[in-house]
Amino acid sequence: MTTPRARTGLIEGAVADLRERITSGQWPVGTRIPPEPALTEMLGVGRNTVREAVQALVHSGLLARRQGSGTYVLADDELAVSIGRHIAGASRRDVLQVRRALEVEAARLAAQRHTPADDERLLTLLRERTAAWEADDVDAMVTTDLELHREIARVSRNPVLESIYENLLEAIIENIRTNLAGAGHDDHDHTALVEAIVDSDPRRAGSEVVRYLATLLREEPEED
Question: Which CATH superfamily is domain 81-217 in?
Answer without folding.
Answer: GntR ligand-binding domain-like (1.20.120.530)
